[in-house]
Amino acid sequence: MKEYRIELLLKINNWEKTLLNSEEKIVDLFKMNDKFKIQKVEKKGYYKLVFNEENFEFRISTESQSIYSIIVYTTNTLNNHVIPPNALDNLTEVVREIKIIISSNLKNCNYEILWDDVGIYYAELAFPKINKIENLMRKLITKFMLVSVGMDFFNNIPPDINLRKDTDADSGFLHNIDFIDLTKYLFTARSLKKQEELIKIIDSLESNTLPPDINLLHYKKDSYWNRYFKEVVGNDIDADSIKSDWERLYNLRCKVAHSKFLKKAEYNEIQTICCKLRKTFSYALEKLNNISVSEDNKKAITEDIFSEIEGKLWYEKLYELIVRNFHDEFTLNDLYAYEPMLQEQYPKNNTIQSSIRRNLQKLRDNGKIEFITHGKYKIIKK
């Protein structure tokens, strides 16, 4: 028969001056809660505790002077290890009531949760759901790039770009991308054509009219989801809402990954988000063949994704180069002087200057450098 337990360690400060200086006196304090029925059993330190008509085993033992171990167990788990309805909820509530009693009556004390089978139970239920939705996201991104855009990750990714030291080639490219970064590929707003190119076109104008082949929407920042999926999947499902759900799921995923005790409400939230995203992603996969991307836009997306991948490495490298060689202000031409060195480091990159400009923008957006005037920058010192 499987037991579920929650264990905490109670430390009473100024133990010598308090009246609650024994196991029995602490139990008497808990008995003051009229929601509890606590009855001593033959075994020392063990009690029967009834809460919401549910039976629990309560144990208290002295670890050292002023430190007590308190454990609450379920007692009616079925033989097939199935936990009865409400048993876990009631176990959580018992411990919650104990913590309230401690906080209200023992001012000079603190406690630590040492073990929480309820949190572990919900974390074990949550992990497969998170794992499946994460892989469904990777599947959607990969199929969009391969089917709609025609971008072959495995053959075209520059070999000098390595995302993580623990890269697993057998798992596929996107499995080496961190969970939170997956939203960058479909759900982060970006322009199909660089806005600085539009500025150059405007600067070259001799009249107040743009050339007829200029599509201003290509320079507007929007996500690939909103451009290509939103109308097909449903206009009420936009990139920002998906990104928000994904970020919340990431925070909950971190609790599971870092072995923090997951609450039932958090597990229910994971269920809700995963169910919502699963429907959205599955429907998007079904409708993928209905998405049409022009050849020009395919090229723009391919270059953009490569720059995103490249940026993970370049961003840090370029910042290191800047702070190592410049104390305050520097110019774009100052950085171009390092092009031969960078070319040696990245022999497959034929657009070194473009990579420099892209990552200067990222450094500016992230508060690392400040734009002063055309081609001139300043290091922001923390």
Determine the fraction of residues in helical runs and give it as a percent range: 40-55%
Estimate what percentage of residues fall within beta strands.
5-15%
Count helical runs. 13
Question: How many strand elements?
Answer: 9
State the low-pLDDT regions, or none.
158-165
Radius of gyration: 30 Å
Shape by Cα distribution: elongated
For the largest beta-sheet, the strand count, sense and barrel status come to:
6 strands, antiparallel
Sequence of strands across the biggest β-sheet: 2-3-4-5-1-6
Structural class: alpha+beta
Rounded mean pLDDT is 83
Walk me through the structure.
It is built from 13 helices and 9 strands. The chain has helices spanning 23-31, 87-105, 117-149, 153-156, 183-186, 195-203, 224-233, 239-257, 264-286, 295-325, 332-336, 339-345, 352-365; strands at 5-12, 37-40, 46-51, 54-64, 67-74, 109-116, 329-331, 369-373, 376-379. The protein has a 6-stranded antiparallel sheet. A 3-stranded antiparallel sheet has the order 7-9-8. The radius of gyration is 30 Å and the shape is elongated. The two termini are 58 Å apart. Mean pLDDT is 83; it is low at 158-165.
